[in-house]
Amino acid sequence: MSTVDGRGSLTRSIVLLTSAVAAVAVLLTGLFAWRTIRTNADAQERDQLSRQAEVLARTPPLASWMLDRQQRIAGPEDIKLAIVRPSGEIDGPAAVAVDAASREALLAGDSVSTTARLDGDDVLLEGAPTLVGGGLVLTQPMGAVDQATNRMRGSLVLPLILGLTGAALAGALLARRLARPLVTAARTAHRLSEGARGVTVPAEGPAEVAELAGALNTLDTALTHSENRQRDFLLSVSHEIRTPLTTARGYAEALADEVITGDEVPDAGRILRTEIERLEHFVGDLLALARLEADDFRLDIVEVDLDALVAETATAWSARCARHEVDFRVERPERPVLITTDGFRVRQLLDGLAENALRVTPAGQPVVLALRADGADALLEVRDGGPGLTDDDIEVAFVRGALTDRYRGVRPVGSGLGLAIAHRLAGRLGGTITARGGAPEGGAWFTVRLPPYPGAPYTPLTNA
Predict the structure, then answer these.
(1) Is 50 exceeded by the pLDDT of residue 458?
(2) Which of 145, 153, 221, 266 is 20 to 30 A off residue 77, Cα-Cα?
(3) Distance of CA 179 to the CA centre of its chain
């Protein structure tokens, strides 16, 4: 595993940490066991010596034989014997090790377990009362305890080494289990930073590591969603910019070719100015997105005369439809229809619907822009003499790209964004948009209903 900025790898750190913890644990355990072994060896030797004393105390002939043997044969004996007579007299090689307290205890019928001095050395002393009174005492040099202690301590070294080795191996396995998902998560994070999307991290390992994987997966989803929204916005604005560009270009070419002359020039100039202002507004949307001030269409709410707005829209589209030999018609009440809304967005919505209608309407057929009041609401309609919509088309009419994919190669199609943008705008304006077939002109029939006041949040227009 590689290192970053000179830091040690996680695997090595965990192995060293677990090995250090294991070493401390082994050291503490060894120290405790080292001391305990001495106590256990002492207790073990005393227990064996005590049992021998009890056996000899219950078998006087055997005790007498051992005493006679030790008295006749002088030599190094590990275990030495002494007999306390009922009269209090003490006989045997170990007699000098029996003090007054031990003698009184044996005469009283009690067992004795103590440490004494014999021939200048420390010895274990175990005594048991006899059946006829008095008692029998056995002594054993402390060297036997030392030997047993060393033997037990020697057998302790291998388990401690194995324990330390096992801890190091367990640390390595733990490090691998922890480091593997973390390395995977780090690689995924690098891929996300490089622009990769749709990558996931398996939620494995401890809860904290699994939580990290879940956070990265959530981040991937959030980044994908955010980038898709920005991409959709850019595509939408790019799609909408084409309409005023096409109108402005048409009038500019007409002016350049002197098709428009005389008294018509001021009107053409006003139309060009209006379309350029619309382009500036679209560019403002892009700048707002670039500055992260907004990721959606902004609304500037004022009182709008929809009749005047429809008349302005009809002026722009009548000339464009004429160039395609399409009969453009407008139906308006020719009296103010006032609502509080964003006039620029309403115009954007109508342009999108009109462009969609013009694209599918053959030469000689009509495109109709209509306005009427329905109580306090305003109804805007765009109808055409094109191929119309089926029931299946109506269900997906406002789904981005659905109709484009369905009719590509069959009839003229656009980018697939126009109707989706219109639906989005209508909702932002607090209104609704519906699609149906069977228009009086024979084609599609789109109706936008706008309330007198917007229901969506908006940004009031200011004079700043």
Answers:
(1) no
(2) 153
(3) 16
